[in-house]
Design brief:
Layout: E1 2-7, E2 12-17, E3 29-30, E4 34-39, E5 44-48, E6 51-55, E7 59-63, E8 68-73, E9 77-82, H1 84-87, E10 111-113, H2 116-133, H3 140-161, H4 174-186, H5 193-199, H6 204-210, H7 218-236, H8 241-247, H9 253-264, H10 268-285
Helix pairs in contact: 2-3, 4-7, 7-9, 7-10, 8-9
């Protein structure tokens, strides 16, 4: 079972599948997508950042794109995967955002335990996901994002209510997690690696060295977050590119445009125009 959603305008991706999708991780590598693994009827054995885990039935584990993941064995799993463009492009309360409790906002690997009286509610949400994936219209993306927000809110509430955050989790990617969180907090005010290095009490060189195995440099992460927010504002608001540039901390609008085009391949104006045309075409076809 594998169903997916993609959105041309924002490059958003959502995948809903079973343990089959995990078999591509037979050896350890970065999982690259925000991922929930839900063990339904039997244990799921995995390794995350060199630490073995067994997800017991009625447990859900939450993983971030930067974590190294290996699937060992298991069946009857439900797997949700999505990229930043799918969920993080929308405004959310900090606790349930992409840097919230389940993701970069903590230094543990969250495991959510679903009680018997909560199973029906989670099963209903999953059924709604599957039904919505079969309904291709111009509000499908919004509905899927709302369902994911609902799923994340439910998981966050359970995690908080059961005190599951008391566990400690040490890994070599804590620095990267901390950096991602700081970028989320300050990307509008500072675009400099030195700014974040100082906040982490590290030199820029030391910080950059910590990313040597990550595949992205600190400056790339900063730029990607700026561009993601720019795409959100261009797609969901009527703000002109110049106003967006200033809101993202650029005194020089052309410099913002160059950064955007380097990452997207289109200028902000071209991106906006292309998406308006795509939406218009989609509305006509529906």
């Amino acid at each position: 079972m594998s169903k997916s959603f993609s959105e041309f305008a924002t490059n958003a991706i959502l995948k809903i599948s079973n343990e089959e999708v995990l078999k591509q991780y037979s050896s350890s590598r970065q999982i690259e997508l925000f991922t929930f693994i839900w063990a339904k009827k039997s244990p799921i054995k995995i390794i995350v950042d060199s630490i073995p885990f067994t997800i017991q039935p009625n447990q859900i584990i939450a993983l971030t794109p930067i974590q190294y993941f290996q699937f060992l064995e298991g069946e009857n799993a439900i797997v949700y995967q999505f990229n930043k463009e799918f969920y993080c492009i929308k405004d959310h309360d900090k606790e349930v955002s992409c840097t919230g409790i389940l993701f970069f906002g903590n230094s543990i690997i969250p495991i959510i335990e679903i009680d018997e009286d909560e199973i029906n509610s989670f099963d209903l949400t999953h059924k709604m996901f599957l039904e919505e994936l079969e309904t291709a219209d111009n509000i499908q993306a919004e509905m899927l994002r709302m369902l994911m927000a609902r799923f994340i809110i439910k998981c966050t509430r359970i995690l908080k209510s059961k005190g599951s955050l008391s566990k400690t989790y040490e890994s070599r990617i804590d620095i990267i997690r901390q950096f991602n969180l700081l970028v989320e907090m300050h990307y509008k005010e500072s675009h400099s690696v030195a700014f974040y290095a100082e906040k982490m009490n590290k030199s820029p060189k030391t910080l950059s060295n910590s990313f040597s195995e990550y595949g992205k440099s600190p400056i790339q992460i900063i730029h990607e977050r700026i561009v993601l927010e720019a795409k959100r504002l261009l797609f969901y608001t009527n703000k002109p590119a110049k106003e967006i540039a200033y809101s993202l901390g650029f005194d020089d609008a052309p410099r913002f445009s160059r950064l955007f085009k380097k990452n997207i391949g289109l200028s902000p104006i071209e991106f906006k125009k292309k998406n308006v045309q795509a939406l218009s075409k989609n509305s006509i076809s529906n």
